[in-house]
Fold these 4 entries.
Entry 1:
Amino acid sequence: MTAGAKTLVEIAGATKRFGPVTAVDVLSLDIRENEFFALLGPSGCGKTTLLRMIAGFEQPDVGRILLDGRDITAVRPNRRPINMMFQSYALFPHLSVYDNIAYGLEMEGVRGAALKQRVDEALAMVRLEEFGRRRPHLLSGGQRQRVALARALIKRPRLLLLDEPLAALDKKLRGQMQLELKRLQHDTGITFLVVTHDQEEALAMADRIALLEAGKIAQLGSPRALYERPASRFVADFIGVMNFFEGRLAALAGGRAEIEVDGLGRLWAETEDLDGAAVGGPVTLAVRPERVRLSVAPAGAAGQNALSGTVVGVAYLGQDLIVHIGLPGQPAPLVARLGSGSHIADDLVEGAAVRCDWPPNDSRILLV
Amino acid sequence: MTKTGELVQRLVLLGPGLGWLALFLVVPCGVIFAYSFFLRGIYGGIDYVFTLENYARAFDPLYLSIFLNSAKIAALTTALALLVGYPAAYLIATGPRHRQVPLLILVMLPFWSNYLIRTYAWIVLLNREGLINRALVDIGLIETPLPLLYNEFAIVTGLLYGYLPFMVLALYSSISRLNPEIREASADLGAPGWRTFLRVTLPLTLPGIAAGSVFVFVLSIGNFITPDLLGGGRTVMVGNLIYDQFLSARDWPFGASLAFLLIGLMMLLLFAQAWAVNRAQGERARA
């Protein structure tokens, strides 16, 4: 989405406590019109509570929720122009597919030919034209999900909420539905807000992601920003796989940082902003497995970020190879990922000496 | 396990229960069933002469009207139990988990004392000099005591009191099985609370309504203690009629035929209810 698009939903300082647990902690967030937004986080991070507050099933203890600039904090769920696709789908088991989808419009007073036309359109949109008369229990999981989607979309809500929409589907179907959801979002122009604990799902579908940790936003940004420029160790660790090196900041000049790591010596990283970093203070250097380059080691190693290690494990994933490399003084092995067709693939056996390195601008310095 | 081993295990587990039922339920029922086809002896015994006269007599307008009146009283009790029980069951089933168990224990608390004693207690409450009438006279709402006891009002009150827990428990189990997200989905799609209730909650809890209603109806129509004590001893319900045939009129064959007609009616209702529940559960299990 283009920056500066109109704000659709504004969450202003929302807090929600359940007994001693603070599920959502003074959280503020803007969701823009016509974007595909993902709330991502581990279970218990508050993402579902936040979703349920936007839907109206939970009231924030403190703070407000605005839709199109209007305060809807006290508006009941049935009066919000927001619809939700539930994780369990929550289809009405006693109603046919057709009647499930028609339900929302019937509540608006749509009747007769107009109703039939829009339900037929919705059935066509999710390609279930043949299934209108069936009861939900006679459908497959994927079909049920599409009924739930059609039922929520038929009212043309300002915002569609999706609670773990793909969790109940098998892996192959999940991939298809990711594309299907993207297509539906594009075709309908409705803003989608999806809650998920699956980072791949969020990366694949969302325009922007808010990663939540303990009721607060750990980082908000595009999938690329979260993956490539994680703001904290939590973000770096949650999204994808990351190698971490604990050390001290030895020097900082001209956007280039030098980190002293026990047992490995100096490592280099390029950084744009390192506010609050003090030379001599503890920092973490992070590098993605696919950024690590491997070569079969000549004795000794030279060059920036060049480390000598020993292969301790290799996992063959078909397309890729995951190599674990033991480094002196490091508690956890370095993880490297390379194409299984690589010319050194055959040399990467347990016990082999390897040289690894990466360009300074492929690693990140994390302060927290 | 071998086939015979399984059979032995089943017999050991089922044996005591089935044996008990066979000996003390099926055999006596069979005896009563047989009696219903014989003539009454002159001195109250059985003349072993086959006849269908007992069943023909049961459909005499005099007895038929008692049957119908019993059904009316039982139906009224059932309807009231449903009206009173549904909101209570709904609140318990949709309330916080930690509050459900104490509330359910409260619902079942009356079972801890004897039904007869509890029915006598209603006499104390309802009679002319009873607690209710005296309280109403004392606060000046009425001048003469209301006729609360020894009528159908008292019978329905007693039956409702006695059997309401069955209704609440049946409804509770049905409502608590409903996925709460289904009600939320209805609200999310624009339905106000009452429409969610009519379109979603009520249809989906019909099996519970059927189960609770059959419980209350069957228990009420066959009851003879409550009409005897609270109804003033007039023969108003079929339970009393059967009781009288066996103990006062000493017409066992006629009593037996009435008992079997009543059992037949109850069985019919129970089968209808089991069928309805089965159908609904089959659907839900796959939904």
Entry 2:
Amino acid sequence: MSYKGAPSHTLLDSMLSIIDERLAMLESQSKLRKKVYHILIETIQNVQNHFDKNLYQNSQEQNAIIFILAKNDDGYSIITGNFIPNKDIANLKAHIDKINQASKDEIRMLYREQLHHGELSEKGGAGLGIIDIAKRSGEKLHYEFKDCQDGNSFFSLKVIVSA
Amino acid sequence: MENFYLEGTSKTPLLDFNAGTGKFVVEGRSIPENSIEFYRPLFEWLDKYIESPQANSILDVKLEYFNTSSSKCIVEIFRKLEHLQEKGQDVLINWFYEEDDEDMQESGEDFQDIIDVKINMHMIEEE
């Protein structure tokens, strides 16, 4: 299942409900189903929170986000993509690299620390999104920045969820 | 003081806070994009409750899903209960999770790690 378009709350909400129903029918392992759905909500809201409508005000093509949910032999892959200004890359990359280098226990500590001390941002983010995604997935996060040669890059994040 | 009651939806939990009995329930899904906006009225209600509380307050948390933005609000609710406990009242939190939901169990443990109120863990067995 895949989506490319504006990050409309209503549209994404209905897609999430459809996926919820389909997963309930297709995925017999309730543990895996919950994990997939949880990570899906978190990744999509993460993209929505960081979506910057000012980047491409006049371009419908680029004023978009993508997400893909794919089922493979041993689980699922969730891929999200959105445009970000090049100046934000360094921080985001450092954040993900730090999480990727951390052990399972260290990620849990990071999570608790952020839960304890972090403040909610204006957009409703808690600085917890990517930590939570990594904690639940238990796998390294794959990411890529593709330079659009206009001051922005396309950021994609791939999360693997296996049983 | 009036009770605080809000029906659950597909994105927000049932909130049933009874000022007369000190029994509180949060149940369902908590995945709104902006959770502060959703929980703010409850925070304000709790602040008033703390001024004239029952001797015993018990909060049951039975969540199926919650997003990270809600987790900060749950911490905020727990902190208010912690404050109540510091004032000498009895406070208890019951955290329910389904048998196969290790993530939800871990979340309860994560909250216990940073909150001074006792969180009792309850496993709901599969039927």
Entry 3:
Amino acid sequence: MLINKRLILAHFWLAFVVFGLALILGAWQMFVRSPLNAWHFNPELYYRSVTAHGSAMGYVFPTLIAMGFGYAITESALEKPLIGTRWAWAGFALVAVGAVVAMIPVSIGLASVLYTFYPPMVGNPFYYIGVVMVVVGSWIWVALMSINLSIWKRENPERPVPLAMFANVAGSYLWGWTAVGAALEIIFLILPVALGLKSTIDAGLARVFFSWTLHAIVYFWLIPTYIAYYTIFPRAIGGRLYSDAMARISFILFVVVAMPIGMHHLFADPQVGAGFKFMHSVFTGLVALPTLLTVFTICASAEIASRLRGGSGAFGWVRALPWQNPIMLATALSLVMLGFGGAGGLINMSYQLDASIHNTQWITGHFHLIFGGAIVIMYFAIAYDLWPHLTGRALENFGLMRAQLWLWFIGMIVTTFPWHYVGILGMPRRMAFYDYANPAISPQAFSVAISTVGGLILLISGVLFFVVLIRGQMAHRSEAGAYRFSVPVHMPERIPVALNSFGLWLALMVGLTVVNYGYPIGQLLVLKETNVPAVYVGASR
Amino acid sequence: MSEQKLFSFRNPWFGASVGVSGAIAVLAALAGLIWLPMVQPDLKISGIWDAICSAAGVPRTVPRSGGAQQPDFKTSNVVMTSQMLTHPDQVSIGRGATLAQRCAICHGPQGVSDANSPNLAGQYAAVTYKELNDFKAGARVNAVMSPFAANMGNRDMLDLAAYYSFLPRVPSSHLNDNAPAPQIVITGAPMRNIAPCGACHGDIDIKAGSPWLGGQSAVYIKAQLKAFASGGRRNDISQQMRNIARQMTAEEIDAVALYYEAQP
């Protein structure tokens, strides 16, 4: 049962509006730095745009989706109204105001530091304050998820926590802890410099703190997608979830091993010892495990649905799947992109292979394929699935939805595959200008031009997405019934306490963080000679 | 469901998860902190503790043998920061005005002259201060300037820098606002590792220690770029300008010199 529909809808709409604006910026960036554009613009505008695109897509859009979807799950899975609605609105307001506060200095060129902050570059303090407001707003959501779960558990001591809620709270705890890294970086290292209280900054330590956030944030983005795989997809295609326990173990593994792995982003950084880079590399390898479990479980669930529909044969059942169903299509396309992106990720996480693609366009290709592709396409699916229940109006144009999903998939492949390729050729990322007339760079020109076409396709798909949602808002009223989640093949009656609670897993998460981050952070805190002068961005001339 | 104890070795989930996580962490640490550094031939490891310290990233002292190679010339000892000398006080400016009378013969009574010496009016204080320091220390050598700077105290240099930064910039006699910026100013030359001039010297961004070039004499700019390229001038920190000037063509040097001379 969905009670606070306006709250949930507000989160989704703001998320998608932010997404739409950032999508336009992304397409513009791809065009201006491609050989299709004659060089006639201020490169500063490019970095401004990259900062806005990254901050919006990285901090605001997925956070709002996770929050809105989290509230929807709380009410529909626990079958009771959300507790703390006022706090939820306060969190929403903090995120919305924070996003505006952060974007003003970015848009006037005072904080072109990119969304990864990149100290010793330091921008206008309001950019960082805005980001902190977004994070604090989302922490309210984390607290609300925890409170709602614990009250439900007290009222229902004999029932297992519904899978969707278990996964949702797992994601919220993961975010609560991983956001601490960037919060520490901003509050203790960057803001004192941005406010003019200090003129030097420990850039190495700041980067270590950011890596604490930077990798697990991806899994926080991923959790709504995985929740949709496990709890929406099997129901939407008329099947059952293959294993409830396997799903719980996957989410638990994300909570435990998504955290102590961030230093694989610092392989080329000198301030961290090689031994710790190796340890983080090992744990990064482990994080492939829950994804492999998920792919197995979801494919098994699809097979169950297909055989219920009369599918047969070793592979013949694939044809019997309901391919007209947008959720079916989105999940299949998402898994394909997850496969390619994951394979690329295994290259990024290995110390030696990373050296050949570090900081190249390959990296941009990798995270756009995973986040922009595999994850965001499921955000579309979540919206399509949830919209009729939120608006009380039917979404009926399945053809348009399928076209939108296909275009997003094609656009993302056409965008990111050439990026991977030019990355191998050595094209650095995050640069406004490439001299394609130069013989050393000209072989990359064709691929970059192709990827720009991909960006255009993504933009068209984004427009179609809004057409579907807006038409949905104007469609005739129809009662969509209660919002339900998938039912597993074996409904759990009693499950081990470990699969029904988080204490053990949170202890392991914090413990492994201390093991893998404790010494490198402690050493940089103690060493005084690691400070460097800050470089102010957009300082007055 | 709540009767089962979570944190107890009777709970198989507890033992297994803590055991497996711990075992992986210990094995990864053994491999990363001991085994891998020990088998690297280039790392001179004296024992297990040394291997752990090396792999953990403990700063190690550089072996004294041979020592760092010392250049046979003086390098700049000034440390630049973005905030350096951005808030000069009035007394300092006043003192600087008196001292500047000695400089007027070349740099002009208002900090501007047509003698092809640098125009100092409106120059960032940190820039003027650094150059004076470098002349005094011998990091930059000039037959006229070096003797002047030799007798200046730190206070004198600070005051002069404050005074010249206080003077308003005077439009160049070659002013041409509409002159198109040369490619190297707005985009640099990435394949030759040349950043855009404007990325440090204004228009795109200002970096600490980079002088304002607008209205400077083209003869002076050209002479300095050539001196950087030949190594005749080497007080740029970390060879920032030498690396750029060496890669520039003669045409590019002419183009930027004329361009900046025509800027306000």
Entry 4:
Amino acid sequence: MFQLNFQPPILMLELANILLDIDALGRMQAETQNGMACQLSAAENAISDICKDPDAARARLNAAKTSWLTADFTELPSHTESLPAVPEKFTVVASDGSQIVPDKNQVALCYLLNASSIVLPYGTGARPEARSIPRLCYKDEDLFERYENKKVPVTDKFLAIRRTLAESEAMEYAISRADTGSPVVALWDGSLIHWSIENEPADYKERVLSQLFRLFDLAQERRIPIAGYISDPGSRDFTNTLKVMLCDAAHVNCDNCPHQDEETKPCNKVDRLKDSSVLKKRLQGGKRSVLFTSCSKILNNYRQHKILAFYMDIGSEIVRVEVPEWVAEDPEMLSLTHAVCYDQAQKGRGYPVALTEAHEHAVVRGPERAAFYQAIEHSCIKHGARIQRSRKRISKNY
Amino acid sequence: MAATGYIGEVIEASTTQFTAESRELYSPPPFGSFVKIPWKIEQAPEALPQTSPASQDDKDPFMEPFLDRAGSFSADYRTAVHGEPEEVCNLQPAIYAIVHEASTSPADSSRRIRAYWKDEDQLDREHPEISEWMLVTHFKAVVIGYSAGGAVNQILPPQPPKILSHVYPCSTEEVRIITKKLDFLRTLTGIGSMPAEEVIAASIREACAARNNSFDYLVSAGRELANLLKDDYDRLQAIIRRVQL
């Protein structure tokens, strides 16, 4: 019998099968963006309402029961602060971290944490400093976490927290190296609100936070503002506040929402907006917004270090900057943070130089990862340990 | 340049040349200048495999007088092969080389530098990270000889310099001693992957300068070159024009 001896080429991704969907996605994006003007105008109306009677607005906000996090405002949200000048002499410190995650297909179960510290002085005549400290984690206490009185393996979640703690320690070192004769600002990569541990058991949460607060305490003692710098922030806390204002119910309670149809909900008028898009227009020229508080539950454990945030324009985007309460309440430190964040972003063409350098000094690249595992393999062989490669590893040739 | 401090660290080495990272950005040793890498000759035999013959039959009776106790070739062997040492002096064991290339580039090849459109002072003030972390200066040098046991030999050393060994500039006295013989000129003419005429001319200028611009030395260098390049008059002319002091 005749058989067709034809085999189609093997493609990893059959792109042709989703081309129509890709086209539809592009169209949807465009439509979403076209609808923004309408949403922005609704947001502006809500801001005006707040400004007309801020006390009533705050009372309404505090009484609201919503399914989303809202942001309280310390001043009228329409208010902005102009960009202050950077001091003649100042220092920026930063830290970052990276890791090689445990890989059960490798010769030994272990992981690596690499944390960098950066000290970048401007105008002081001092030389910049960079240090990165790798730590090989392979012992019992490294591979297991004490959690709810049990010993549990260190999963990605715990590893991320351990990395954050390593970064925090690296920042402590950077702060200790900075010359406090002139102003110093500590830039933290990302949010200072560690909401991911919000639902962890109290003792674990306390253990992690107390280590993080060592850095906050040190910074506060030396009057060094810590600023969590978030590029392209996706947060919508303030937009959510506007939703509360737009709601037509006398007392906002999402559980008893009278609107059955999602489309007709008054709060949907701003549902596509992020805080940054709401504030973008009024921040142009390096201005910053007022400070917003967050109602993230984890902040109840933050003692005197409760986090507030402002948004600012750095020219190419709106960024979110988070600071502890003691920075927010100190006009000098707040204005220094504002000026330095802007200046760093300008020097780094849109992203702070100190954070870029901290990343560059911490990052573990592919060849370094390969060298790391090779060194471990050599060590095992040298000491006569049996090397066992998983079949998966052999099949993937890595 | 202080002779006491090292000016670079070897990051790549072969028998004939090496590449070093400059200790200071934009400050490699001058083109055509003489540099040295201190060399612990007493350690060299340890680095070599022990050459004790496997059996009595493999033994080469003719080599016996030339092997020292460590199994390496002895000073007698060097004398037998290369003749008497050129210069007996008090120089510490070192590998000598002439700088023939320098470059400054991004320290991390994956981070390309872009223009900042700022003047030098402004860049130093506002972007300390560039000179501190983002750029690195390298220089390359061609090996012309070595000193060992108080003797200077203008022949290639038995082993290349070690990676991460320190590079020092040669003092005027050292330049005088190591350029007394002009065999280094042949080494330089034989290496093609560099602007050889420029390097030769620059090294002769350096060697002359170490002798208070001695005309006699210049003439002898010219004679040596004329001999080496007797079949390439144009190249000879090109070098001589560049040597003019």
